[in-house]
Amino acid sequence: MSGRASVLTEEFVAAVTEFDRSLFEVMQERVDGIAATGPPTGVSIDLPGLYREHAERRTWLSRALALEVGTDWDAVRSGASMLLPRSG
Fold it and tell me: DSSP label at 41?
């Protein structure tokens, strides 16, 4: 592949899934911290709303991965071949 790195789809999805899990784990810790200590002085936070929003966002990746997308891969390859420099 002329010096370009390739990543299998499964590896990419695994990396994105791990990032998503780690991100939401850290975000949950921050939300729990605010719930335990209260918001900074002068800041008002709707904690029940924040928990609901956080729970909703945790579902985005799994819902996106469950979508069946009807991609015309032949058209994608054809378009990509027009964009890639030709060797030879």
Answer: T
